[in-house]
Amino acid sequence: MVSAQNTGAVERATARPWAQWLSLLDEAGAARMGHAAIAELALEHMPEDLRNPGWWAQGVAIGYEQERGLRVPGQGSDGTFKTSVSRTVAEGPEEARGAWIRLMEQAPDHQGVAVAGEPWTSDTEKRLYWRAKLDDGSKVSLSAEGKGEGRTLLTVTHEKLHGPEVIDGWKAHWKGVLGRL
């Protein structure tokens, strides 16, 4: 089950009660705006001393959209849904991603949905990635982030899901796959 935006955390970080955020955005016509415009409006009203105000503005926009029925929990601004699961393993990032790749090659079908085309990898200084498109139009990615002492945080994110009713099933599926590593 996906939970709604944590408006209490927004209130604490911004020192503005949630009801004031709702009033401010309503008065500005946010109910007729897209997500980016709502986030920009919220950003304009963030406290000057707030760390990472863009991130908090996104949270305000998501919370507002959920509160006003413009979006349900777990839904992206494009109307699709996503879920993610993570697990820490006792391997380095390259070894962990390699184990994931081997597992995906052995079982390319997931809940009746196959990998479409060839998966690809990419690396940044902080994380290693594996990504694939599935034949239902959704996308799956794995990030492997070293946590020191030979440990790696693996996060599987499944995006472009077509409805909230599939989130729990996919979450359980990917948790099970990570459990096999």
What does this structure look like?
39% of the residues lie in helices and 28% in strands. It has 181 residues and is of the alpha+beta class. Strands 1-6-5-4-3-2 form a six-stranded antiparallel beta sheet, with helices on one face. Helix 1 crosses helix 4 and helix 3 crosses helix 4. The two termini are 24 Å apart.
Compact summary:
The protein is an alpha+beta fold and 181 residues long. It is built from six helices and six strands. Helix 1 crosses helix 4 and helix 3 crosses helix 4.
The Rg value, from CA coordinates, equals 19 Å
- Report mean pLDDT, rounded to a whole number: 93
- Which structural category do the helix and sheet elements fall into? alpha+beta
Find the CATH topology of the largest domain: Alpha-D-Glucose-1,6-Bisphosphate, Chain A, domain 4
Q: Which percent bin holds the helix content?
A: 25-40%
Name its key features:
single chain; 181 residues; alpha+beta; Alpha-D-Glucose-1,6-Bisphosphate, Chain A, domain 4; 2 domains; 6-stranded antiparallel sheet; 6 helices; 39% helix; globular
